[in-house]
Amino acid sequence: MHHDRHERGLEFLNRIDGSQGEKVMAALASVAPDLGRMIVDFGFGEVISRPGLDLKTRELCTIAMLAALGTARPQLVVHLNACLNVGATPREIVEALIQCGVYAGFPAALNALFAADEVFKERGVSPLGE
Amino acid sequence: MHHDRHERGLEFLNRIDGSQGEKVMAALASVAPDLGRMIVDFGFGEVISRPGLDLKTRELCTIAMLAALGTARPQLVVHLNACLNVGATPREIVEALIQCGVYAGFPAALNALFAADEVFKERGVSPLGE
Amino acid sequence: MHHDRHERGLEFLNRIDGSQGEKVMAALASVAPDLGRMIVDFGFGEVISRPGLDLKTRELCTIAMLAALGTARPQLVVHLNACLNVGATPREIVEALIQCGVYAGFPAALNALFAADEVFKERGVSPLGE
Amino acid sequence: MHHDRHERGLEFLNRIDGSQGEKVMAALASVAPDLGRMIVDFGFGEVISRPGLDLKTRELCTIAMLAALGTARPQLVVHLNACLNVGATPREIVEALIQCGVYAGFPAALNALFAADEVFKERGVSPLGE
Amino acid sequence: MHHDRHERGLEFLNRIDGSQGEKVMAALASVAPDLGRMIVDFGFGEVISRPGLDLKTRELCTIAMLAALGTARPQLVVHLNACLNVGATPREIVEALIQCGVYAGFPAALNALFAADEVFKERGVSPLGE
Amino acid sequence: MHHDRHERGLEFLNRIDGSQGEKVMAALASVAPDLGRMIVDFGFGEVISRPGLDLKTRELCTIAMLAALGTARPQLVVHLNACLNVGATPREIVEALIQCGVYAGFPAALNALFAADEVFKERGVSPLGE
Questions:
Q1: Is A127 an 8 Å CB contact of chain D?
Q2: Alpha helix positions (H), chain D
Q3: Considering just the CA atoms, what is the radius of gyration of chain B in Å?
Q4: How far apart are CA F109 and CA B22, in angstroms?
Q5: What is the pTM of this model?
Q6: Ranges in chain A, pLDDT < 70
Q7: For chain E, does the N or the C end have fewer beta carbons within 10 angstroms?
Q8: ipTM of the complex in this document
Q9: Number of neighbours of residue E62 by Cβ within 10 angstroms
Q10: Which domains does chain C have, with CATH numbers?
Q11: Chain F: nearest CA to C70, how far in angstroms?
Q12: Of F31, F43, F69, which has the smallest distance from its Cβ to D113's Cβ?
């Protein structure tokens, strides 16, 4: 079962984060490889892979949280990509982040949307006209 | 158009928050009735009522944000009710809040889930066995 | 000079917080009387008593900060009283807190305004009609 | 009236933020132009332009909030400029930010003052000797 | 190994939190028993039980974090008790919390010390004269 | 006594922060030299130099707080160095920061550990194999 959650964690990490997940794990290798394993095994293998809420909604909730906290830009970028990877449209992402302005203030919404703008441009997609 | 957003705001406030929205407005009457109007006209009439993201996902994002911030218990309770009002199941709510533990820490998830427990009991619903 | 800052601190504590300041000091007596002395000597005697910004603006900035942080309701109540003690009007206080909604989100503004409503009612003042 | 708030919003945006406001709007064009319009129409046209609190105090409260939150450096820079634009002196700005150390900790005060140092140098002003 | 971490988690939960840990698990039973299991298995069984840092220092770091965040009073109370359970003295706890004032502001330190005062009184211990 | 705290503050600043403390003071010279003096006299001379908690535990609590807040990377870097300066091992630092993931979320832990990785590499030390 312990083995199971690791396999399941890796599978979800790859499905959701793509190559960006691997980069985070590699970056942890010299300082805290155990944290990398925890993120895969626990974060992905035990939490995010749970049934009961679809991946697209999970990822939209995640970018909303990270945008509201305003303290985790690198992780926000990873999860903006993840949102697109699991089927959210750029427009849905923008809507979730604009709504962040109501509950966490305009600066939180602005900084998250500027991060989203970079991700959208990198991937050649746009929320306009959707 | 200004009139429109007020009408639309009230309609969404009632659909989403039910009688709890009115209570918040009433509570503001002696201190800042203008803020109440802003919440209706701008918050509901101009943001939450936007097309592009369904109400259920909007409300799940909102409870995720409020749980992560950890500074807005009364508003979290209103939006836990709102989640149920717009069709989220108790299980989906629980999943969004457990996931909050990964991104904002276990205390944030715990406090939000204890609030959810109260709301579920008040409404006679349960996330277990779903 | 050390003696000076203590005297100056007490003088400003009394002028700004009135009897509420003394209550906080008394409440610290059994757990951390040194923190009480630091708040008087450093907080009031070395910072808040500095020239260069008038007390009314200082206190309005303080309630704006505490409202935005959303983690310090007891201190917000003390400083809402302090605002009134140093000459801010209920209307000015309400304006500063509504503005908090723009930069820290509506829940932060709502919770601060409900605290202000209690303070205003206790003191028999009102921001309406000003 | 809807038209009015847009005109009033633009007028206050220009008076307060100068060319920096326009840059923010332009930066939003490819990702969320609607948020730009909300900031002008609602943020400036409906909140910041309200009577009841003078613009200088409003802006000092804003930098105090943003400094305390510590999550919005780009917006802090815009509003440090705005403070100067509406008549606050560098010394008043420094006093508000030092005070932030008392209520939100020294790191929050330090980071805000380093941002202020950059803004002051860019504009050729200084808080010292005032 | 999966079984191991559950056993180890329970052992550390009991050693650190005593009966308060069980109460939290019981309180989660009707809303999110899985989160309770995650806290035991992952939080205690995989993180807090790691060698490399002694339990007393771990718990002092935890109350410092919770005090600084200011959003988790129930968990702060549990961990103030935990600090005492694993050998920290009331004086050490008070020192860690006063220091919080320097990095997260006086209100954060005050609210944490008032929580500590309650815990100390309940357990009949005192930081004074140590 | 006022003189005393300044001397004591400088002594602790040098012992804990080394040359990095001086750099912060120098950086404040053009904007708020008084804040620099407050940090030395009050922060170091009156708080951090207090008996009752050893310097190593104080610094581990400080990095835990700054990691949890997630808003003070420059100060986190200074105190990661300070931890090493007063005798904490890289492994102890890593453990404190991994634990931050449990109470403040994985993104807070990740960003703090990436900062620690840089500090460790700069100083030619490693938490692995300890």
A1: yes
A2: 2-17, 19-28, 33-38, 55-69, 73-85, 90-104, 106-123
A3: 15
A4: 41
A5: 0.97
A6: 1-2
A7: N
A8: 0.96
A9: 29
A10: 1-50 (no CATH), 54-130 (1.20.1290.10)
A11: 14
A12: F31
